[in-house]
Amino acid sequence: MENPFYVGQTQRLSGRMDDYRLANFKACTDFRVGEAVKYLNDTKNYPVIVKYRASTDPPKEEYEIIRDLLLEGTWLLNCFPGYDYLKANEADERNAVQRFCNKLTGSHAKATSGN
User: Fold this and answer.
1) CA dist 94 → 5, 18, 72, 80, 115 (Å)
2) Is residue 1 in some structural domain?
3) pTM, two decimal places
């Protein structure tokens, strides 16, 4: 069973996937998506699948997909409020992503920082 956890848009798919792989803390979305992928793959042993499709109106389609998933009750990283990397704590943000993943997968065990 597939469970979406993030919806995005890009015109540079391979570069965007690399951004997520690097999970730079200074780039909030890159960090969160990258950390979620690492946690789901490495810790929870869930495969992560990327689905991509071309679009003539990416912002509109992204909005519609997010809206429809939220109305179905799907939890999305898109809904996390952003953080200021100069003030935020990386371990705290990583823990929040892990807690999100636990909620997503039905595991309510408290996530711990990997530091």
Assistant:
1) 16, 19, 26, 13, 10
2) no
3) 0.88
CA 21 to CA 50: how far, in whole Å?
Answer: 13
pLDDT at residue 108, rounded to an integer: 55
Q: Which pLDDT belongs to residue 107? A: 73
Residues 96, 94: Cα–Cα separation, whole Å: 5
Per-chain mean pLDDT for the chain: 92
Split into its structural domains, the chain has a count of 1
Q: Is residue 111 part of a domain?
A: no
Residue 1, pLDDT score: 74
93 within some domain:
yes
3 is a domain residue: no
CA distance 23 to 31: 4
Which residue carries 């909005």 as its tokens? 63
Structure tokens at 98: 């892990």
Q: Which domain holds residue 83?
A: 13-105
Question: What average pLDDT does range 80-95 have in this prediction?
Answer: 97
